[in-house]
Design a protein that fits this description.
eleven-stranded mixed sheet, Rossmann fold, single chain, 5 helices, alpha/beta
């Protein structure tokens, strides 16, 4: 049975897209998730929404209880996870307002709980292809049909935050072949893979980070403004793609 978890980032914490929506509070072995769960359906597919940073955006990136969020979705029976996230662009062609569907990540975080397997048993999870390629392809096809500017199969680097990068760091990340930068994809994607759930990120480019000297350096106000403008497009993607989801016998669940 298909059940979809939506992890809402900035501007998409609680989209009004669910039929028969209700809120439930849950606990996990890792503590409570970062928000109540909003449960409902989209065209017959069961959906559960979590606000990554809390309903009032009060939880900064390093304090997000990623393990509790992913565990809560798994406990609810979620088979797929689609996560929205704001990203800074490290490439000229990824302009603010564009959507990005990454297929690779670079982990530049420092102090997060990055695995469920830190006690009793040692499990080395394959992570060569961390994102669900089937979901990436479906999201890309939907974006193309709706004429949304998008980029697929790019690399996201996740930094610890909450500060933004220095200009030197931004140029270094470009040299590492990262395409976009955020503070949330890792360890979320890793934990979803450990729980054998299909995971994809819908990343919204909000700025050019600080490497682009002809553009204004990133600010939180800039991110919020662009996210608000693009939230409707991301919701349209959710509504279009989620009813089409099915189980795949692929690397995500091996």
């Amino acid at each position: 049975m298909i059940k979809v978890g939506i992890i809402g980032g900035s501007g998409l914490d609680d989209p009004d897209i669910l039929k028969n929506a209700k809120e439930i509070s849950v606990e996990t072995p890792y503590g409570p998730p970062t928000s109540v769960l909003t449960c409902g359906s989209i065209e017959g597919k069961d959906v559960v929404i979590i606000a990554r940073h809390g309903k009032d955006h009060s939880i900064y990136p390093s304090r997000v209880n990623f393990r509790a969020n992913v565990q809560a979705l798994k406990d609810q029976g979620c088979t797929h996870v689609i996560a929205s996230t704001a990203v800074g662009s490290l490439r000229e062609d990824i302009a603010p307002g564009h959507l990005v569907f990454p297929n690779q990540f670079i982990d530049n975080t420092r102090k997060r709980d990055v695995t469920f397997f830190d006690e009793d048993v040692v499990v080395h999870t394959a992570m060569a292809d961390p994102f669900c390629q089937n979901l990436i392809d479906m999201l890309s096809a939907s974006a193309e049909n709706m004429a949304f500017p998008f980029h697929k199969n790019r690399t996201v680097i996740t930094i610890e935050g909450p500060r933004f990068s220095t200009r030197a760091e931004s140029h270094m990340f470009r040299a590492w072949n990262a395409d976009v930068i955020n503070m949330s994809t890792v360890p979320e994607v890793c934990l979803a893979r450990e729980k054998k759930m299909h995971y994809a990120a819908v990343a919204m480019s909000t700025d050019y980070d600080c490497w682009h000297e002809e553009e204004e350096s990133v600010t939180w106000e800039m991110i919020v403004e662009v996210m608000k403008k693009n939230a409707d497009n991301v919701i349209k993607l959710f509504v279009d793609v989620i009813p089409k989801l099915k189980e795949y016998d692929d690397v995500c669940v091996k």
